[in-house]
C-alpha cells in the first residue's frame, strides 16, 4: 500500500512572507532614495518602485509573494473547512470561509497588479490594484475574525481548536487598525491630490500643496502594510499542526484508450490506394 506523502512545517510559509514583503519594501526604498528617484521620508510604497532598477526588483519579488500568499490563504481555508466539518460548527461558517477565500485571492491579484503596473505607466490599473489589494485585504481579515455581523468573531469561535485567545485579541486589534488606516489613507490621498500643484508627485514638497495630507496618506499606507504582514504572521502557530497532502492526478476512464484502438484509428486515417483505371 502506497503511503501518502504530506508537506509539513507549513508554519514557515507565513514567516517567510513576513520577512520577504517588508524586506522588499525597505530594499526598494533604499535604492530609490540612493538613485534620487524619491525623497527620503515617507513616500508611497509604489513611489519607491516606479523606476528601474527598483521597479524590476519590486515586481519580481512581490509576484513571488503574491503566489506564496495564495498558498497561505488556501491552507487557512482548508484548515477552517476541516474544523467546521469535524466539529459541526455554526452553519454560516462555511459560507464565510468561502467568501474569505475569494477575498483573499482577490487581494493577491491586487498585489500582483500593483507590482506589475507602475503608476507612471498605467496609473488606472495601478490604482485599481491598490484599492483591490488593501480593500479586499481588509475585508479578508474581517471575514477571518468575524463569523457574521452580529455573533461572535471567527477566531474566538475556533478557540481553543483554532487559535489562542491572545491571538484572537491581536487579530481583532489588527483588523480594526487596518480598517481605520485604509480609510484615512484613501481619504487623505484624494484630498492631497486635489490640493497638489507640483510637477513630480514622487518628489512631493511642502510648496507643492497638500503636503500634510500627503504625509498622512503615506504614513497610513506603510502602517497598514505593516499590519497586513503582522496579521499573516499570526497564522504561524496554527500552521504548526497542519499538514498538506500532495495532489493526485486522476485519469477519467472514458478518456483512456487501448493501444489497439489507437492503432486502428491511425490505420483508418491512412489514405487507401485508388484502384487502377483502364484507359481505352
From TrEMBL:
It is found in: Endomembrane system. Its main location: membrane. It is a multi-pass membrane protein. The chain crosses the membrane at residues 12-37, 57-75, 96-117, 123-142, 174-194, 214-236. Keywords: Membrane, Transmembrane, Transmembrane helix. It holds the Pfam family Frag1. Residues 10-241 form the CWH43-like N-terminal domain. Belongs to the DRAM/TMEM150 family. This is DNA damage-regulated autophagy modulator protein 2 isoform X1. It comes from Neodiprion lecontei.
